[in-house]
């Protein structure tokens, strides 16, 4: 499903998108694009409003940190990983499976 244009997603800055009825956060890290659920697994904070440092996004509410490439927790208080989605680029479009 097309969720954004490449020009929408800037390195180092999370992007908020909708995939059907699901809110997701999209990230550009180097040459790659990555997508995870927008809701932090601790208290559902909006990850697309968080701070991205390399491949780690920090939830703006309570500081949980997740690797955007894998969804893994790299800093609490969250203990569960965030759902990660497969991303592909087709021309100028970013698509999420």
Q: CATH topology, anyone?
A: Rieske Iron-sulfur Protein
How far apart are the termini? 6 Å
Radius of gyration: 12 Å
The largest sheet is: 4 strands, antiparallel
Helix count, per DSSP?
0
CATH architecture: 3-layer Sandwich
Structural class determined from secondary elements: mainly beta
On the 0 to 100 scale, the average pLDDT is 96
Q: How many domains is the backbone divided into?
A: 1
The number of distinct β-strands equals: 11
**Gross geometry:** globular
CATH superfamily: Rieske [2Fe-2S] iron-sulphur domain
Low-pLDDT stretches are none
Question: Describe it for me?
Answer:
There is one protein chain. The protein is mostly beta strands and 97 residues long. It has a single domain, classed as Rieske Iron-sulfur Protein (3-layer Sandwich). 0% of the residues lie in helices and 46% in strands. The chain contains no helices and 11 strands. The strands form 3 sheets. It has a 4-stranded antiparallel sheet with strand order 2-3-4-9, with no helix packed on it. The chain has a 4-stranded antiparallel sheet with strand order 5-6-7-8, with no helix packed on it. A 3-stranded antiparallel sheet has the order 1-11-10, with no helix packed on it. A hairpin with a 6-residue loop joins strand 6 and strand 7.
């Amino acid at each position: 499903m097309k969720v954004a244009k490449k020009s929408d997603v800037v390195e180092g800055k999370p992007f908020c998108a909708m995939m059907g009825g699901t809110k997701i956060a999209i990230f550009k890290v180097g040459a790659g694009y990555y997508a995870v659920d927008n809701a932090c697994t601790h208290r559902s904070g909006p990850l697309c409003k968080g701070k991205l440092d390399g491949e780690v996004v920090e939830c703006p509410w309570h500081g949980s940190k997740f690797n955007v490439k894998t969804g893994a927790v790299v800093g609490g208080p969250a203990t569960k990983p965030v759902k990660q989605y497969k991303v592909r680029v087709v021309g100028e479009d970013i698509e999420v499976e």
